[in-house]
C-alpha cells in the first residue's frame, strides 16, 4: 500500500531531512584517516539527539548502531566499530532520522583524501545516477522511469547496479511501498503521484552486481571485492516536480539541482 502525504506531513519529513543532511555533513567533517567508524557513529548519535531527532536505524530489526558506515567493497548496512578509516578509502554514511514521527533517509559516499582516479569516476557516476533518477520523480511518470534512468547512466559508464537492494517509500515507516529498483524498464511499474515520498538510492559497483551478507548478518559487500558507492535522497513527488527533502550539501554542488 502506497501512503501519500499531505503538505504538512511533507514539511515534517523535510524537517527530519534537514537533520539527516546536517548529520551527514557533520560526520563528513570528522571523516579523516585514523578515526574509527565506531567513533563516527557516536558523533552522529550525539548530533542527532542534540537536534531533537532519533536515529531511525538504531533498533530497527535489531540493528545495533545509530547509522550505517560502509567502507570500500561494503555496499550498505556496515555496522560501525573498530574499522580505522584510511587515505584513499570510499566510505558510505547512511543516515535515517525520525523527527516528530516522520522519517527521512539519505546516504553519501565520501572519498578520503587523495583517491584513485577510478574511485573518483565511480563516485561521479553514483552522484549522476541519483540525479538522473530524481529527475524522473514527477507525477504521471512510473517507478520504471526512475529505475531505467539510473541503470542506463550507470551501465553506460561501465559500472553495475546492485539488484538485490532497492530504494523504497518512506514516511511514518522507514520502508514503505513501493520498491524503487535501480534497474528496470521505462514506462513500467507503479505510477508516481503527488504526495508520494520515496527514497531513491543507487547502489553501484565497479565490478559485477553480486553482493553477499557478511557473518555479522548486516554488512553487505561485493562478491568480487570491487569498490561500491551509494547515494540516496528522500524525495517528495510534487506538482512542481521532485523536491529533495534531505538537503543539498554545500560540498556537493552537483546535488543542488
Ligand atoms: N538507511 C537504510 C536504507 O537506505 C536502512 C538501514 S536499516 C539498518 O534503507 F537497520 F541497517 F540500519
Ligand atoms: Co533507504
How do the strands and helices of this protein lay out in sequence?
Blueprint (H helix, E strand, L loop, with lengths): L6 H24 L6 H14 L3 E2 L12 E4 L2 E3 L13 E10 L2 E10 L5 H19 L7 H14 L3 E2 L5 E3 L6 E5 L16 E4 L2 E3 L5 E3 L6 E3 L5 E3 L2 E6 L2 E4 L13
Antiparallel strand pairs: 1-4, 2-4, 3-12, 4-5, 6-10, 7-8, 7-9, 9-14, 10-13, 11-12, 14-15
The site of 2-amino-4-trifluoromethylsulfanyl-butyric acid (MF3) has 13 residues, from strand 4.
Describe this structure in words.
This protein has 257 residues and is of the alpha+beta class. The chain has helices at residues 7-30, 37-50, 117-135, 143-156; strands at 54-55, 68-71, 74-76, 90-99, 102-111, 160-161, 167-169, 176-180, 197-200, 203-205, 211-213, 220-222, 228-230, 233-238, 241-244. Helix 1 runs antiparallel to helix 2 and helix 3 packs antiparallel against helix 4 (143-156). It has a single domain, classed as Creatinase/methionine aminopeptidase superfamily (Creatine Amidinohydrolase, Alpha-Beta Complex). It starts with 6 loop residues before the first helix and ends in a 13-residue tail after the last strand. The radius of gyration is 17 Å and the shape is globular. It is built from four helices and 15 strands. The strands form four sheets. A five-stranded antiparallel β-sheet has the order 8-7-9-14-15. Strands 1, 2, 4 and 5 form a four-stranded antiparallel β-sheet that branches. Strands 3-12-11 form a three-stranded antiparallel β-sheet, with no helix packed on it. The longest helix has 24 residues, at 7-30.
Amino acid at each position: 500500500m502506497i501512503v501519500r502525504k499531505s503538505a504538512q506531513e511533507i514539511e515534517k519529513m523535510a524537517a527530519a531531512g534537514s537533520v539527516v543532511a546536517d548529520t551527514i555533513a557533520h560526520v563528513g567533517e570528522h571523516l579523516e584517516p585514523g578515526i574509527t567508524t565506531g567513533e563516527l557513529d557516536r558523533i552522529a548519535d550525539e548530533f542527532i539527539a542534540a537536534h531533537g531527532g532519533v536515529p531511525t536505524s538504531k533498533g530497527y530489526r535489531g540493528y545495533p548502531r545509530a547509522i550505517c558506515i560502509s567502507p570500500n567493497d561494503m555496499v550498505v548496512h556496515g555496522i560501525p566499530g573498530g574499522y580505522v578509516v584510511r587515505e584513499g578509502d570510499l566510505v558510505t554514511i547512511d543516515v535515517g532520522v525520525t523527527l516528530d514521527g516522520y522519517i527521512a533517509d539519505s546516504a553519501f559516499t565520501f572519498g578520503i583524501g587523495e583517491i584513485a582516479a577510478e574511485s573518483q569516476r565511480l563516485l561521479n557516476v553514483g552522484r549522476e545516477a541519483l540525479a538522473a533518477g530524481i529527475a524522473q520523480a514527477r507525477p504521471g511518470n512510473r517507478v520504471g522511469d526512475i529505475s531505467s534512468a539510473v541503470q542506463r547512466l550507470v551501465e553506460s559508464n561501465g559500472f553495475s547496479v546492485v539488484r538485490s537492494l532497492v530504494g523504497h517509500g518512506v514516511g511514518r515507516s522507514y520502508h514503505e511501498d513501493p520498491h524503487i529498483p535501480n534497474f528496470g524498464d521505462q514506462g513500467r511499474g507503479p505510477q508516481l503521484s503527488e504526495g508520494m515520498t520515496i527514497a531513491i538510492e543507487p547502489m553501484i559497483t565497479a565490478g559485477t552486481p553480486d553482493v553477499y551478507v557478511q557473518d555479522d548478518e548486516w554488512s553487505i559487500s561485493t562478491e568480487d571485492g570491487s569498490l561500491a558507492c551509494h547515494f540516496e535522497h528522500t524525495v517528495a513527488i510534487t506538482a512542481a516536480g521532485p523536491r529533495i527533502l534531505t538537503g543539498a550539501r554545500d560540498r556537493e554542488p552537483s546535488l543542488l539541482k
